[in-house]
Amino acid sequence: MRQDTMEQQRQEWPELLATDLDGHFGQFVSAYRRRLYAFALRQTGNAQDAEDIVQEAFLRAYHALKNYPVSRIRTLQVQQWLYKITLNVFRNHARRSAPPSVSFDVSEDSPLLEIEDQSGRPDEEVSWREWRHELERGVATLPERYRVTVNLHYFEDLSQREIAELLNQPVGTVKANVHRGIQLLRKALGTQTNEMR
Amino acid sequence: METRNNNEQRSLVDQWLAALDDADWNTRATAIRMLGELGERAPLEPLLVALHDADESVRAAAVRALGKLGERVPLDRLVAALHDADWTVREMAALTLGELGERAPAAPLVDLLRTGDEDTAVREAALLALQHTHPDVISSLDRQAAILRHDRSPVRTDRPRQQLDTTAPVQLSVPVKRQSRPQDASQNWQEEPDTFEVADPDATGHASPPGARPGPGRHSLPRRIAEGVLAALLVLGIGLSWLLVAHTLHPTSSGPASQVKSTPTPPPVVSTNSGNNDMSLTVVNNMVYASAYDGAVSALRENNGGLLWQYRTDGSVYPAPIVVNGVVYVTASVDNGPSHVYALRASDGKLLWSYTRNSYVPSLLVVEGVAYLASADGLLAALRASDGSVLWHREIQGQGVSLVEVVNGVLYGATYEKNQDPGHVEAWRASDGSLLWQSRASLYLLEVIDGVVYASLGNDVEALQANTGAVLWHTTLDGSPSQTPLIVSNEVVYVTATVNNLPVASAVPAHSGGYDLETIPLADNRKTVPEKQFNSSVYALRVTDGAVLWHYKGQEANGLPNGLIVSDGTIFGCTQVVTGGYITTGYVYALQASSGALLWSYAIPNNQSVVITMAHGVIFVGSDAAFYALRASTGSLLWRYALDAAVDTAPVVDGGVVYVGANNGITVALEASTGSLRWRHLTTVSGNGVF
């Protein structure tokens, strides 16, 4: 149901923004800010950097929308488009900055951990959360080319085709990066799992 | 009143012009946009200058403002902006040209499609612009595209929501529903004289790689443009770029140049894969068998790289093909399942049989006419290698199974829990799958060598008697030994030990009586990963009792280990040093096997992957953007071959030639002694139109 509503909103945004950009941009930001922040946080591993990146991404999105012909706004797939802009900002940010130390907010309400809960029973829920935390930490250690693909595919729910369009890569490359990313993740988690015994 | 308004406007314009020098891009972009609002009255020169602004949003705003200048629109500058480095500027240039009607030149927009701008948004914008300005050109392209549409269907994108499946081995399960592929969907291509399989769609009318399958598509282009035309035109752009975009390989300047024996600059290589399509290689009987992540299995002639045949599987093929008795065995997986095991005739790629399991199949062994496989959902099976018939199978409920080796009629493997926790090391009779013994403790299986099973749990290495499972000895290291292969040489066990310094969520009792995660406030107490995320070291253990003979902790080995080789009294290793979430440097190093003393090390900066192989006294090193050959005796650089892709899979050396599979689908054959190029082959069955 929640998914349906989100999808419906996603489809409505282009028309709303095309009709009255200034009137709807605030709501648009509210609708996507948390999600983009989580995405950026998984990419950077640093809350301040993520906040900066999301702020700048929305600014650039606003400028772009202001300059787009209305016909272009109406054809936008807003979510992918926002990720694309955020990724641009992230990469420019990464180019400008020295590799940051990775910090993690693993509090229960952290947007970093916004993955649909698959658990049912309370004990399963605890296990699920523990595993989520491990997984998030693992993702943040992946090399960028794998990190972004795994992040978009598993956490942001983009299809491989959508990721391919977003990253301008063949779908096969995306698929390969997902596999390779998971392999590396498995390696990292396996090592960690061993140590926890 | 009018004068007053004019004065106010002039004042505003002056402010906007002054703001163009502001340090903040947002201010400059806003100023440009406001100047653009003046329309035909906007000053031209500042807008032209802004086209060279360092910030892409400012340049994009300038493009848009220039498009509003009416008769003064500098068309040439807008066309030039179609080639800006940033996609947002190129997109805006195309959209702006689209607003100019017939004045906009069609050719640059058509070129953008034909040469296939790398960015989807730019291609979409070019298409929109053409539709606005030159619909006749669209019709013309449409006819061409209609031909292509039959061969290059849009990529299927329908899939269920991605879910993290806690029951899967990696707990990352993506239930991508795929139609089962009929056997005749495979493609066996005839030999081609050229190593590149590039067809010109303009000339032949079919640019599709054989094996591209039709499927339902989902696209992002406007509804008012007919779906078929859109898909075909996009494919046209992609397809033509596939033909026309050439990447030239330039030798890099990294590494000690004075020691480099330069290799000739290779001619351009055509690759659609800028990223990762790992090629895993097996060289047998004068043939190179290459499996690709994107599903292709290729047979290449060892002497010239000519393609003998190619088979298209229904998944990602990994690891390298197993070639036994004229049959090529590969495993292709779609995420965590289904997985398909294929047996292909080595001479012509004909499918002999296939076996499908609706789960991930991590292990395939082919020994003495039997193919043994194990799956993440508990299957352990033996198939007759000649025809794929099931000889026996076991289903181990609730656990995954992995196989390591078949020795003297005994199959060694291990079970693992759904959450990746270790199950037990087990030995099964290879003839019927009956259980011979099971380890008492939960263990990961590492290797079976010389009648000893080596396993691990946490930081412990355990040696078990292979025929009974009895514990011979165990030794505790300062890290997990599971990262690289365990090697036994001259009565010594060599193994790496790795500590992952990633913060671990601590569990504390919760009110519910169960356990809850300790919460860490957002801003104040962020856990920060230590600068070095992985620490590792190398151990030498006495094979008889596991006693530590030496322990090397030098910085070259202190990272994420990725390989270990023992040869002629020397240990060779490679390590990725991880810093702050970024792998920054790859190290190759050599230690004296008897003492663990460092003999030499070689650093490859800015590197995210490093793999090694040794042959003929040379260490061959695959890395992110180049392939290296180092003298095993000194670590000095023999030669370096530049690649525009990473090498993530182990190179193979055969008959004085080293074969390298890059992750953009290219396989190269290099003279092992000089690094000069013998041949290269591009696996052209890539993602476009396939998955």
What does this structure look like?
The complex is a heterodimer of chains A (197) and B (691). Chain A has helices at 2-19, 21-44, 47-67, 70-75, 78-96, 122-141, 144-155, 160-167, 171-196, and one strand spanning 103-104. Chain A has 197 residues and is mainly alpha-helical. In chain A, helix 2 (21-44) packs antiparallel against helix 3 (47-67). Mean pLDDT of chain A is 75; it is low at 98-120 and 192-197. Chain B is an alpha+beta fold and 691 residues long. The model of chain B is unreliable at 142-276, 503-531 and 685-691 (pLDDT under 50). Chain B is elongated. Chain B contains 11 helices and 40 strands. Chains A and B meet through helix 3, helix 4, helix 5, strand 1 and helix 6 of A and helix 2, helix 4, helix 6, helix 8 and strand 23 of B.
Brief synopsis:
With 197 residues, chain A is mainly alpha-helical.
Write the layout of secondary structure elements.
The complex is a heterodimer of chains A (197) and B (691).
Chain A: H1 2-19, H2 21-44, H3 47-67, H4 70-75, H5 78-96, E1 103-104, H6 122-141, H7 144-155, H8 160-167, H9 171-196
Chain B: H1 2-19, H2 25-36, H3 44-50, H4 56-66, H5 75-81, H6 87-98, H7 106-114, H8 120-133, H9 135-149, H10 201-204, H11 227-244, E1 279-284, E2 287-292, E3 296-301, E4 307-312, E5 316-317, E6 322-324, E7 327-333, E8 339-345, E9 351-357, E10 363-367, E11 370-374, E12 379-384, E13 390-395, E14 400-407, E15 410-416, E16 422-429, E17 435-438, E18 444-449, E19 452-457, E20 460-465, E21 471-476, E22 487-489, E23 492-500, E24 507-509, E25 515-517, E26 527-528, E27 534-542, E28 548-552, E29 560-567, E30 570-579, E31 582-592, E32 598-605, E33 611-615, E34 618-622, E35 626-631, E36 637-642, E37 652-654, E38 657-661, E39 666-671, E40 677-682
Antiparallel strand pairs in B: 1-2, 2-3, 3-4, 5-7, 6-7, 7-8, 8-9, 10-11, 11-12, 12-13, 14-15, 15-16, 16-17, 18-19, 19-20, 20-21, 22-23, 23-27, 24-25, 27-28, 29-30, 30-31, 31-32, 33-34, 34-35, 35-36, 37-38, 38-39, 39-40
